[in-house]
UniProtKB/TrEMBL annotation, chain A:
UniProt xrefs under PANTHER family: AMINO ACID ABC TRANSPORTER PERMEASE PROTEIN, BRANCHED-CHAIN AMINO ACID TRANSPORT SYSTEM PERMEASE PROTEIN LIVH
Provenance organism: Halomarina ordinaria
Family per similarity comment: Belongs to the binding-protein-dependent transport system permease family. LivHM subfamily.
Protein name (record): Branched-chain amino acid ABC transporter permease
Membrane topology recorded in Swiss-Prot or TrEMBL: Multi-pass membrane protein
TrEMBL record, chain B:
Full protein name: Branched-chain amino acid ABC transporter permease
Localization terms from the record: Cell membrane
Membrane protein topology class: Multi-pass membrane protein
Organism: Halomarina ordinaria
InterPro entries: ABC_transp_permease, LivM-like
Keyword Transmembrane: yes
Top-rank taxon, per record: Archaea
TM region positions: 21-39, 45-68, 80-99, 111-133, 140-157, 193-212, 243-261, 281-303, 323-343
Length: 312, 370
């Protein structure tokens, strides 16, 4: 019984993959393209989460709803005023930044020193509020921009343009975040706070202000991600949970607070999902992803790029 | 007004005298459960044209008690030791799936299924606990690791045809494994019996939670919560007691899952193992007061009937109840970070040593990065 299951469930897909590798089946290239594109989106979705996690040590359960809010605001401005969806991403970013700072001042700051379950409850409450408000405003139906940007053809693989643009946006924002963190004074203050909050206080850094900035930037990155996702994917108020769960896996895989980690983590998850759904039956690729998640938490909880001394 | 205040003071005196007696907690337990037992009958009573039944149904009360019970089980693990589990849906789901599968496929009585499911969940709990404590995961990492286990079980079950894959398992008919509807079959035709069944589950778990808290083990568990290293240096084996806590907690959480599978029409991987289920299990305790036995039950009655009453009150605007619910969560966490039970402390209904231990948790809990 078990033997049969292993034979049909694991060996067969492996044999198939091996055959495709030997025969240089063009489908491999196509899958690689799709995997990288999807991974870029996942990385973008995880960036804000890893930033807030890394600096403030807060598990932000509202991140999924931030993403959905970003998708909706971009979609709504674009479809109401006829603005190009590429420009409306800016609206999402600004909106989410302002919202993030406001939420940080009003709700996160008072409890940041309190038991951690309060952070769970506050961010979950915020998440419920945002999703329900979106449901009241736009209904539970799925919406989409309905734009067709077409495909590029490269070496026999087709690359959907909308997703390619989203990937480019992800890469640019990762580079921008990295430059901000490593080449500006404020970025250094942010890294100092992430490294040691108490020491940062002593060095004259206004830690609460850094927290507000971090939460605002984390939310703004979710706005950016949402604006990019809505280019090619329909949106409904409940779309955030999938991205939130994937973002958790990516953040742990890449290491808390690590931007290159988020990118690599996102690409790994994207590739597993695309290759896995092609070669493995059903949604077995999910077992691979979450199994990896569990094993990783035990074996290397600091992730691929995380600092060794991260508190655990 | 003055007479009100005088009678309040008298009631408070009686309460504190009651509290001081050795049987105080027992009396409170009996009175509390007597009230809960009378609750379905009180729904129909109308006072000045206002009746609870307009907002609540027995079904809402059943859901409330399911989460009070699961929350109480969660409390034994996470409330007492401070290791915050975000994955108790794993145990809930195992209880539900084992019970359903055994009765549908083999005609095995759900009571046996409940026991088997609880044992399986207990073993899984011990395995998870062994890994978590062996690799010394704390804080957010512990929460994420438990969450990951629930997610993993969800995707595994979703990919197994034997467990109905994504569709799930329909509730079996009692005739398939028992004689008729009734206690033996764990299925009833009317909700009141379900209510009393889950109330008795709650009673069992509450008594167990209370006994553990009052025992030597309970003191050890709270010592671990306050300062694990100090506890270890006093010769307590944190590992052993944490394992006891997670095993017990998982065992009883599975009971709720078993009950759930006999109560609802169908169980699905996305619901019994889902993110929301994880939240719903820990919410009562967090709202009521982490580590507090009565607080968990109070918390459950604050959260679930509120949400339902809001839904009934604003039927035209779907989602409005969730907005108010979310605001309530945020406000409770902001204003009462040690749970609603700490309100009694603030108002000066000084409880004895029991609450003192609880009120410690807020400010003085050492941070994880030490």
């Amino acid at each position: 019984m078990l033997h049969l299951a292993v034979q049909s469930g694991v060996l067969e897909p492996l044999r198939e993959l091996f055959g495709d590798l030997i025969g240089l089946n063009p489908v491999l290239l196509q899958l690689l393209v799709f995997g990288l594109l999807l991974g870029g989106i996942y990385a973008l979705a995880a960036l804000g989460l890893t930033m807030i996690f890394g600096v403030m040590d807060i598990v932000n359960f509202a991140h999924g709803s931030f993403l959905v809010l970003g998708m909706f605001s971009s979609w709504w401005v674009s479809s109401t005023f006829g603005v190009s969806p590429f420009l409306t991403i800016i609206v999402s970013v600004v909106l989410l930044f302002v919202l993030g700072v406001a939420l940080s001042v009003l709700t996160i700051e008072p409890i940041i020193e309190k038991p951690e379950e309060n952070q769970f409850i506050v961010t979950l409450g915020i998440s419920f509020i945002i999703i329900a408000l979106l449901e009241i405003a736009f209904g539970a139906d799925s919406r989409s921009l309905g734009i067709q940007l077409g495909n590029y053809q490269v070496l026999g693989a087709s690359i959907p343009r909308a997703q390619l643009y989203a990937l480019v946006i992800a890469l640019l924002s990762i580079v921008a975040c990295w430059a901000f963190l490593y080449y500006t004074k404020l970025g250094r203050a942010l890294r100092a706070t992430a490294d040691n909050r108490d020491a940062a206080w002593y060095m004259g850094i206004n830690v609460p202000r850094i927290d507000h900035l971090t939460f605002g930037l984390g939310a703004a990155l979710a706005g950016l991600g949402g604006g990019a996702i809505v280019l090619f994917s329909p949106v409904d108020p409940f779309a955030g949970e999938t991205y939130l769960v994937k973002a958790f896996v990516i953040v742990v895989l890449g290491g808390l607070g690590s931007f290159p980690g988020a990118l690599v983590g996102g690409l790994v998850i994207g590739l597993i999902e695309v290759y896995g759904s092609y070669y493995l039956p059903g949604t077995v690729y999910e077992i691979v992803i979450f199994g990896m998640f569990v094993v990783l938490l035990y074996v290397k909880p600091t992730g691929l790029f995380g600092a060794e001394e991260v508190s655990r | 007004m003055t007479s009100d205040r005088a009678s309040f003071a008298r009631a408070r005196d009686t309460y504190s005298r009651l509290n001081g007696t050795p049987y105080g907690a027992t009396v409170k337990l009996v009175v509390g459960f007597a009230f809960l037992a009378a609750l379905p009958q009180l729904l129909g009573v109308s006072i000045l044209g206002f009746s609870l039944g307009a907002f609540l149904s027995v079904n809402v009360l059943i859901v409330t008690l399911v989460y009070a019970t699961a929350g109480q089980a969660w409390n034994i693990m996470s409330g007492y030791t401070g290791y915050f589990s975000f994955g108790h849906a794993a145990f809930f789901g195992v209880g539900a799936y084992v019970t359903s599968k055994l009765s549908v496929a083999f005609g095995i009585n759900p009571w046996i299924g409940l026991l088997v499911g609880a044992l399986v969940a207990g073993v899984i709990g011990l395995a998870v606990g062994f890994l978590n404590f062996r690799y010394d995961l704390r804080g957010h990492y512990f929460a994420l690791a438990t969450f990951a286990i629930a997610l993993l079980l969800q995707v595994v079950v979703r990919n197994m045809e034997e467990f109905g894959a994504a569709v799930g398992i329909y509730r079996p008919f009692p005739g398939d494994y028992g004689a008729e509807f009734g206690l033996v079959a764990m299925q009833f035709r009317e909700p009141n019996s379900y209510y009393y069944l889950i109330l008795s589950f709650l009673l069992v778990v509450t008594v167990v939670a209370w006994l553990i808290k009052r025992s030597q083990i309970g003191y050890y568990l709270f010592a671990i919560r306050e300062n694990e290293d100090a506890a270890a240096s006093l010769g307590i084996s944190p590992f052993r007691y944490k394992m006891f806590a997670i095993g017990t907690s998982a065992f009883f959480t599975a009971w709720c899952g078993a009950f759930w599978s006999m109560y609802v029409e169908i169980i699905r991987p996305s619901t019994v193992f889902g993110l929301t289920r994880n939240v719903e299990i820990l919410l009562p305790s967090v709202i009521g007061g982490v580590g507090s036995v009565p607080g968990t039950i109070i918390g459950s009655f604050l959260v679930f009937p509120l949400s339902e009453a809001l839904r009934v009150s604003f039927p035209d605007i779907p989602g409005l109840d969730t907005v108010v619910y979310g605001i309530a969560l945020v406000l409770i966490a902001l204003l009462l970070p040690n749970g609603v039970i700490s309100l009694g402390d603030r108002l000066g209904w000084g409880e004895s040593d029991e609450v003192n231990r609880e009120s410690m948790s807020g400010e003085e809990r050492p941070s994880d990065d030490d």
